[in-house]
Amino acid sequence: MESTFDLERYLNNSQKVETRDLDFSRVRDYPITPQEIRCLSYMMDVEAHTVMYFKALLRTCAARDPEVLAFMSCWAYEEFFHGRAIRQFLEAAGVHVDAARVDHVRRQRSWRERIEESGAALLCHVVRDFQAVYLAWGAIQELSASEAYSVMARRTKNPILSELLQRMVKDERRHFAFYFNKARPLLRSRPAQVATGVILRRFWTPVGDGVKNDADVRWTMRYIFGDHEGMEIVRRIDECISKLPGMAWFNLMSRMREEMVGAAAGPGLGGPVLVRQGNNILG
Ligand SMILES: [Fe+2]
Ligand SMILES: [Fe+2]
């Protein structure tokens, strides 16, 4: 039996991730590694950039669907607070986050990202089944985010970070459930399957690509998915996405991992981190 997504329930319960009961004054009482700081910085930037995706998506046919529009309104709100919560944690850990960081990240994003943002509205005219593509894409990214936060929550020796990440995992799972369940009926159409297959194979990249530079993307993917457990997780993601109609071929997460883990170039996991003197990041 197919699972469904209860949109009304989601809209009624949507809220910012709760942090008021987390004692951030005790963050420094527990370990936090430079690698965790680098990874959290990446995630903070991606979460904070969500509003830019939202802006681009509002210009597409995706926004014509009232369910998608309602979901996206709450989704962007929740993602903003993920970014904010990570920022609060980092600051409590003694990391200075520049007030202009969001704008700096926005200006640093790749030309491809800019073109994709501004050209997204045109896609609806060129790709008749754009909504299926967008929803399948969203399902992959949300499931990846959920798994990445779970990995970090399990690995960290900082209980406050672990708790914060587990709370965000719950949100990311709900986001995934929406995209996945909304994509499924649309992907029963053969043209939608073809369009989704062609576009994902040609253009899909992991969460954060386009917003962060290549070295950061590679480092983060290796940090999260580089070990044996990571290999099993990317297989699990592929397996889950491949349950969508016409997506049995899906193996892009495993292929991405092979590429990233096998990549000789770029910093290793022990390489330089975004922590500068005085724990300044991205000064
Ligand atoms: Fe998020
Ligand atoms: Fe999300």
SSE pattern, N- to C-terminal: HHHEHHHHHHHHE
Largest sheet: 2 strands, parallel
The count of β-strands is 2
Helix-residue proportion = 55-70%
Structural class: mainly alpha
Unreliable spans are 264-268, 270-283
Number of helices: 11
Rg, Cα atoms, Å: 18 Å
| Residue fraction in strands | under 5%
Mean pLDDT score: 87
Hetero groups bound? fe (ii) ion
Report the end-to-end length measured between terminal Cα atoms. Answer: 52 Å
Considering the chains and any ligands shown, give keywords for the structure:
mainly alpha, 283 residues, 1% strand, disordered C terminus, two-stranded parallel ribbon, binds fe (ii) ion
Describe, in plain words, how this protein is organized in 3D:
The chain is mainly α. Helix content is 66%, strand content 1%. It has a two-stranded parallel sheet with strand order 1-2. The longest helix has 28 residues. One fe (ii) ion (FE2) binds next to helix 6 and helix 7.
Question: How do the strands and helices of this protein lay out in sequence?
Answer:
Elements (H helix, E strand, L loop, with lengths): L6 H7 L20 H25 L7 H27 L3 E2 L3 H8 L2 H16 L3 H26 L3 H28 L3 H14 L10 H12 L2 H14 L10 H11 L17 E2 L2
Parallel strand pairs: 1-2
Helix pairs in contact: 2-3, 2-4, 2-5, 2-9, 3-7, 6-7, 6-8, 6-10, 10-11
The structure holds fe (ii) ion (FE2) (2 copies).
